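Hi L., both proteins are below.
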Amino acid sequence: MEQKPLTGVSMMSPQAIFLEHEAWLRTIVRSRLPEPDAIEDVMQNIALAIVRQRDVLGEVNRIGAWLYQIAVRQVLMYRRTTGRRRKMHERLQRSGVTEWDVSGPLQAMLSQEANAHVNEALGEMSELDRQILLLKYTENWSYREIALHLGVQDETIEYRLMKARKNLRHRLRALVDEGTGL
């Protein structure tokens, strides 16, 4: 890995830094993940992590080492997430539960309607609130994992999650009230 001189690193945009180092970062990711789609997902996450951490760019002594740490961390987070999904899928298969395992047509319709309301309410929320809720409740990430992913303190995630849940409840009530004509 060739180290670039530090002069002007803090002056460079996160996008410029990512583009300048993208080729070797892609090699690092490719060496750890065999699937092409996974490589693209992780590269996107690396770019986002650089943008989120733009405030510390001026403090970075060795940009190559800093970017390498980000890349490895993103690969590990990707593996952890896919591993959790795979384990959940395997557990569901062992227990005999499938997507279509419902007690009747009415239950299926109610479930579908509830999912539509949740998706609509999530769509109305800010990107950050939606991301925090999904990471916590669909990926089962801990506060610490979410905080590391977003580059903030654990307490911030706890507060943001509480605020996002309240916002989601409010939006769901509004959608249900709207649907019932109340």
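That was the first. Here is the second:
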Amino acid sequence: MRTLRGLWLIGVLGLAACGRGPGVRTAPDPAALLARARNEFRHGKFTKALLLFQRLTFELGPGQAELADVRYHLAECYFQTGDRVQAAHEFRQVADQFPESPWAPLALLRAGDANLRLWRKPDLDPSYGEAALAIYQELAGRYPGTDPAARASLHVRQLKEQFAEKAYRTGTYYLRRWRAYDSAIIYFKDVIASYPGTSRVPDALLRLVEIYRAINYTEEVRETCAHLQRYYPQTPGLAQRCPAEASGGAP
């Protein structure tokens, strides 16, 4: 009897030493999980990588250095799988929660990129475009001299051109369709004041000359023509719209 009882105890202890039986799983190693996630990401398997990075956000503690890396790549997975709204949010979280991390400036860049992609039709609601512009400008202020800031500056120029084009087209619409001179003037002046250096500025100035002539604003014609002749002398149609005497005498 003692022999049987002894054998039973040995068997129980043996099972305990083997991990409490074959049906119990051990906790995953975060380092191994991160390696798997990175491998899936490198091979373009973003849906699988996303699930692994999501899991890692729970496995890693808030003070672990890898968490910024994990959160950034989680955001990138959202971006690559087409969920640009969630991607923009996650990138923003990386920049705000880990501002000293090397991932922070890149995350701001990608947050801007996600909003830029969401602005699919510039002629419609510009909210996403405005958000992208604000983020790119924030990046330049928070992380000047970085490569992401340099890349963002290219997008800033692109966005300003798009906003200038949008305002110019709206002004032209009011001018051509409704002869709503006051409204058209507001939009053309917005192009000039808000987006200096863009390609639509001289065109907006020419439109103002056209409107001022139509409503007999002689002094405004003279001043606007003088501005064009001084700063944009190569503007097509300038000689016809603004004869040389317009800047110094009656138009």
